[in-house]
Amino acid sequence: MPEGHTIHRHARTQRGAIGGQLIRAASPQGRFAHGAKRLDGRVLEDIDAHGKHLFYRWEGGDTLHVHLGLFGKFKLHRAPSPPPPSENTRLTMSSVTATVYLAGPTICELIDPHQEEALRARLGPDPLRNGSRRAKLAAFQANLARRRIPIGAALLDQRVIAGIGNVYRAEVLFRTGIDPHLPAAALAPQAVERLWSESSRQLKQGEKAGRIITVDLGDVGARRRTDLARGERLYAYGRTGEPCRRCGTPISATEMANRTIWWCSSCQPAGAGT
DNA sequence: TACATATGATCAT
DNA sequence: TGATCCTATGTAA
Predict the structure, then answer these.
(1) Co-location of A257 and A211 in the same domain
(2) Are residues A138 and A258 in the same domain?
(3) Which CATH number is A59's domain given?
(4) CA(A250)–C1'(B12) in Å?
(5) Whole-angstrom distance, CA of residue A134 vs CA of residue A186
(6) Is A80 an active-site residue?
(7) What letters, b where the CB count within 10 A reaches 16 and e where it falls short, cover A76-96?
(8) d(CA A142, CA A137)
(9) Which of A80, A97, A122 is the last residue of a domain?
(10) What residues form DSSP beta bridges with A94?
(11) Does at least one atom of strand B sit less than 7 Å from the CB of A157?
């Protein structure tokens, strides 16, 4: 389930588990044997996340760049001695007290600071990164103003805003009442600000909770989050034809930027957001 | 056993 | 726009 909130959470927990320590690295599966050999026995100085990208900084200057893609997974094992790694583990990183397993990533590579900078330059502002809200909002706004694509497509473009995926794009548009089809450049400044604030709030909440829950409890008749049944956590994503939790209108679905997007045609009527 | 699908992204055309 | 890569899981055959 890798949208930005998951990646930042991995960065945080892994930093606590193996950050600052001497690491034994290996590639049981073999596809990263060369890189693992290069990192083995070195100190992992820090782990940093930007959008859906992870950067592991090693003593001596190398950076390990990881992107989970759709299928990549981490496992964290907190124990002095790691269990035997499974065949499809691309990379293991073990400190004295914990082991991080990585399987199925789209990207697992060593890069130098120059490459990292180039990569970073292509990413839009990330609501989960430190920095001035004003500056990030301004960047988001400028990025949107340049696009001719619908806002629903722009939110998936990591150069516009980093960290939003297919679940959050549907959910933040629902929560801000914006029509996904609206051209990105046509959004009113207040709509852009609402969108940024909402993205920021939802991503932070997701990072903390470790999962995506965007519904207000009142809309699903729950008192506590722990009361939520599966399938009650979201307003729009994956709910084709089901009644909107706010107004009862059947949720619509269409293709946008090669993925399905869902929205409520009453809560997000055509043109809403201008 | 095969196929469809999934919270991602890039590259070729 | 379509093909491709990454992997696991659920459903159909």
Answers:
(1) yes
(2) yes
(3) 3.20.190.10
(4) 39
(5) 21
(6) no
(7) ebeeeebeebeeebbbbbbbe
(8) 9
(9) A122
(10) A24, A99
(11) no
Name the residue closest to B8, CA to C1'.
A69
Among all protein residues, pick the one whose CA is nearest to the C1' atom of C8.
Answer: A71
Say if CB A53 and CB A64 are below 8 A apart: no
Instruction: Assess whether A231 (CB) lies less than 7 A from strand C.
Output: no
- Summarize pLDDT for A87-143 with one digit per residue, the tens: 889 999 999 999 999 999 999 999 998 899 999 999 999 999 999 999 999 999 999
A204 catalytic, yes or no? Answer: no
Is the separation of the CB atoms in A101 and A92 below 8 Å? yes
- Which residue is associated with the tokens 């060593």? A110
Q: Which of A1, A19, A47 is nearest to A167 (CA)?
A: A1
* pTM recorded for the entire structure: 0.95
Q: Containing domain of residue A180, as a range?
A: 133-263
Residue A220: Cβ within 10 Å count:
16
